[in-house]
Amino acid sequence: MTRKAVVIEPGYANYDLEREILGPLGFEIVTCDGAGDRAALEAAVTDAEIIFVRDTPVDGGLISKMESARGLIRYGIGVDHIDLTAAKAMGIIVARVNDYGADIEVADHTVALLLAAVRRIVSRDRDVRNGAWQVGQDEPIRRIAGSTIGFLGYGRIARAVETRMRGFGVDNFIAYDPFLKTSTSAELVGLKELAERSDVLTLHAPATEENTGIINQDFLERMQPHAILVNTARGLLIDEAALADAVESGRVRAAALDVFTTEPPRGNPLFGVDGITLSDHSAWYSEGTVAAIQRGAALQAKQIAEGEEPDFRVA
């Protein structure tokens, strides 16, 4: 009897790795691009034993339709868009992919955005194309070496960013992370001090009920006027309207963001503000990362299908 694994919101070039790993167990891999079509999503998951998901919200109503599901696998780490309580009530194991190399790609992208903001790469590109030249005196640039870099969240990615920035002559690092009691590298500080001391602040925390909008007007008003904010974590950490106002008014020098409160962003207040550099939630991406994340997800599914405890179970 054929077993079914369904991929919600397909977005990869192919699913050969999933077929290679799950095919010998009798699985057929099917895809469902149900964006905006709730009925299609519900029909696709009803008889699926394994469900793979990327960013599609998986609420309790959708989970209630997963009548045959044994496992729900997230392509990636964040599971804030999955109703874990509902999954547990249905007896569905939720797992994710923890070790696909995100610390490499996201750290690289964080540093790239940081450098683009500090060195004003985007505005320089625009100005040169428009005939301007040697505009440095009009747009002063602070030296990176000797800066204080602050981290909101001090896990693997933040530490990878720190390692990279030491190569630029930075040796002053501070971090706010309520889950850490000690640190052998960055100095642990309170949230207020993080805002006040950071020349560059990078965000590396998950989106939780407690820290949604943690970068708000009060926080931004405490930052130094030359400070730069970089976010490659979660858009919900930032009050986007407050950030747009802070950069536009000059209270904060610049920002560089890869993530947004709503994705894809439409009519976002950050659009059109000089000094804000944007990318398309691509910090995690490389061809190597995609292969690692697909293989990792398939291996989690294989463990569940064989009755084993998955390596990275969430619920």
Report on this structure.
The model has no long low-confidence stretch (mean pLDDT 95). The protein has helices at 16-22, 38-46, 60-63, 84-89, 102-118, 121-129, 156-166, 191-197, 217-222, 240-249, 287-305; strands at residues 3-8, 27-32, 50-53, 71-74, 93-95, 148-152, 172-176, 187-188, 200-203, 228-231, 254-257, 276-278. The radius of gyration is 22 Å and the shape is elongated. The longest helix is centred in the C-terminal third of the chain and has 19 residues, at 287-305. The strands form two sheets. The protein has a seven-stranded parallel sheet with strand order 8-7-6-9-10-11-12, with helices on both faces. A five-stranded parallel sheet has the order 2-1-3-4-5. The protein is built from eleven helices and twelve strands. It is α/β, with parallel strands linked by helices and 315 residues long.
| Residues in helix, % | 25-40%
How many helices in DSSP terms? Answer: 11
Strand proportion, as a percent range, falls in 15-25%
| Rounded radius of gyration (Å) | 22 Å
Q: What is the CA-CA span between the terminal residues? A: 28 Å
**Unreliable segments (pLDDT under 50, ≥5 consecutive)?**
none
Strand tally is 12
* Main sheet: strand order: 8-7-6-9-10-11-12
* Structural class computed from helices and strand pairing: alpha/beta
* Outline type: elongated
- Helix and strand run: EHEHEHEHEHHEHEEHEHEHEEH
Largest sheet: 7 strands, parallel
Mean pLDDT: 95
